[in-house]
Amino acid sequence: MLLDELIAVIEVLKRRIADHGPTLGVNETRTRMALIDPLLQVLGWDTTHPSIVIPEYDVSGRKADYALLDQKRRPSATVEAKRLGESLDSHLGQMINNSNLVGVEYAGITDGDQWQLYEVFRCGTLEDRQLLSVRISESPSYLIALKLLLLWRPNLTSDQVELASKPIAVPPTIDGPVPPVSDSIDWAPLSKFVAHRTTHLPELIRFPDGSEHPLPAWNSLVLLTVEWLWSMGLLTTGNLSDFSSKARHLVYTEAIHPSGKQFFNPKPIAGTSVVVEANLSKFNSLKRTKDLLSGCGQDLSRVHLGVRRT
Fold this sequence. Notes:
alpha+beta
């Protein structure tokens, strides 16, 4: 699934930038091999295939590092590559002008961390013409992925590019598709979050370690909390019974309640040996999430829910 694969690659690139930034910033070649090519590949731009990408493409007497080709093998976009950490601003005007001269509709530039894309033929300032600006090292991976779908090959080669605020390839997750996400998020501590009949599903949950996860459904609160607590060693097979009643399990090693009944909506948690009973209402999802975190010694004021700002 594209979004899952894209997020996984972004996580790898984040680690490479953090762990090897000075080395990758020595020259453009290192940046391209370690940071730029892997991202283009996962977005459908096979940099080794001459009918998909032409390296060192002639643009008005100079070379563009990449020409991304459409189905008729005409450039949909050119991409300039710079070494990691190099300023992009001084190259923007010339890059767009060169693409304009050869009739290429989109022009991109990147240092492997920051990615920018411009609409070449639009009138206005550079800011007016900018379609994409994202920095991999500074934003949550899923937000970066949604924005970078603008560069997805079937999108960029289509007649009408869909902006990143309207992702066109969002695969299902635990309980359904990830909703479009806005940067305009307000964070509320879980300790003060109360659900009412008209309360909308939050966009995100942020755990005390800073990790953030999209919430496709209310019961995802419980599923993601179980996954996080297990990964931190706070929830184990030894304390699962703390979250069970005489008749019902919330999370257990088998999808069978103490009463002998099967789980109505069993959800195995990847990377663990447990199953969650996900047959939960909005109110039960919130209560069970708080019970799980508190029962594992976590301060609810350090867990936050992200709500779209209206």
